[in-house]
Each structure stands twice: as structure tokens, then as C-alpha cells.
Amino acid sequence: MAEISASTVVKLRKMSGQGMMDCKKALEEADGDMDKAMEILRKKGLATLAKRAERETSEGAVISWQSEDGKVAALATLCCETDFVAKSDDFRALARDIREYIAACGSDEGSANLLQTAVAGKTFEQMLTDVVSKTGEKMQVGDYTRFRLNDAGLIGTYVHFNSKVGSMVRIDTSDEKVAESPALKQAASEIAMHITASKPLALDKEDLDPQMVEREKAIYAEQVQNKPPQIVEKIVEGKMKKFYTEYCLLEQPFVKDDSKTVEQVVAEAAKQAGGEAKIAQFVRFAVG
């Protein structure tokens, strides 16, 4: 077995970020070969992931990214097991690094696609595994979605100060002048914040799961089953209207001014700029 010098152990520690004892053991197993030792440490991380596959990752952070021209934006969740690790320097560094991988990812959704994205010859899955081997805690990319502007429009993003919840909204406009207007930019930012707080399930009632809608109607009808059929119909209709205003984004009362719906806020902001605008899609991610 090759003699492992202290300087070699220190070098591996700087390269891997692992503890001195782990580095020494890896070098001893690799007979002093630095590349093999790095691979041993990486396998340690993979083993940790496999061992903890069933563990809950209820802590972590929501990460947002947007291109310089604002035409592309994405939202992802980076998850771990404990708040202690979520606040660690290693996790925070990984949360910063993931933005570079988001920028390089060619897919618009799917955590697996983000994990397989490579930057400088290293996939994000490898980056994540390296950090797992340091912390001994399971980590994963929980969600990933990217929005793109194909025509005139803008994308608003918001991540809450605790990094546990964030949202993204794409607004299509009649022209670039409307998209660049301060009023609509402010509306986009505020609506992303609104989505974070109000938890809509769909853009409008047509986008709701039909089975969910029928289930709600059945529940409301059951509550007033002893009344005449025509009365039951009216009561169910009224309750469903309230249901739509609670869970459909366009019909929700705007959090900053509940005298207006979200749809009205966008329309009024666009009108100020001399054009039209409509919300095309949104997403809300939360950790935990």
C-alpha cells in the first residue's frame, strides 16, 4: 500500500470538501490514486442516497432563475431532510450552483432532466451526490419548470423570504410596448406574490380537474338534499361560484385589492399601456 502523506489528504479535502478522515480512508482504499479516491467519495454519496431513498425531504429551498433578456425563467425546488442542512454552507452553495444548471438545461420540465444537465463536464446529479457525501443526508430536486416567451409578454417570479415557497407567472401581451410598461411589470411581480399566498389550483374553471368539480357539486348537493330540486340547483350553483373564486387564479380577488379579480388587474395594467394582456400560465412550488 502506498504511503499517504498529510499533504495528499489535505489536497483531496480541498478538492472534495470531505472530512480529513474520509479523505484519508478513500486514499488508502485507492492506494494513493487521487481520481480513484474522488470516485470512492462520490460512491459514498450515492450509497447514502440509496440508503435514505425512503426518507422524507421536507426541508430545502425554492430556486428561481431568469435570463438577462427576461424571455426565459424557471423555478425549481432543492430539497433535503433537515432545516440544519438547509441552512448549511454546502447546501447554500449548491442552491447557488443550481441556477447555472437551470440556465443550461434544454428541457422545460422534469427534475430528472435538470439532474442530467452538465456544466463543465459535470452533471448536477454529480454535484448533488458530492454534497450528499459531505452531509450524509438525502437531497433531491423536487420540482422543475421553465417558462418561455415565444411572442410579446413577460414573466413574473416571486420567492418568499424564507425560500420555502415561490411562484412564476407568464403574461402574454398584444405587443412589446405593453410588456415593457412599468404598470404591467409591477402587476406581474405582484401576481406572482399573490399566487404564492393564495394557492390557486388552476388558471380558470375550464382548467380544473373535471372529477374534482363533479365531486364538489355532489358534496354541496348532499348538504341540501332535503330541499326541492330547483332550490338545490341554485344553491349548488352559488357554492360552485364561490369555489371557482377561491381556486381559479383569474377569478380570485387580488390580495392587494380584493375589489378586483386577478384578471381585472392584468387587463387594467395593460390598458394603461394602450394594449391588452392575459395570464397564459403559472406555477407554484413549495418545500415541505
Give the topology.
Layout: H1 6-16, H2 20-29, H3 34-51, E1 59-66, E2 72-80, H4 83-86, H5 89-104, H6 111-115, E3 118-119, E4 122-123, H7 124-135, E5 139-148, E6 153-159, E7 165-173, H8 176-179, H9 182-198, H10 210-223, H11 229-247, E8 253-254, E9 257-261, H12 262-272, E10 277-286
Antiparallel strand pairs: 1-2, 2-5, 3-4, 6-7, 7-10, 8-9
Q: Which residues form runs of ≥5 with pLDDT under 50? A: none
The total of beta strands comes to 10
What order do the helices and strands follow? HHHEEHHHEEHEEEHHHHEEHE
Say what the CATH topology of the domain at 54-148 is: Tetrahydropterin Synthase, Chain A
Strand arrangement, major sheet: 1-2-5
Q: What does the average pLDDT come to?
A: 88
Gyration radius over CA: 25 Å
Distance between the termini: 47 Å
Q: Specify the CATH architecture of the domain at 54-148.
A: 2-Layer Sandwich
Helix content: 40-55%
Summary of the model, kept short:
Helices cover 49% and strands 22% of the residues. By secondary structure, the protein is of the alpha+beta class.
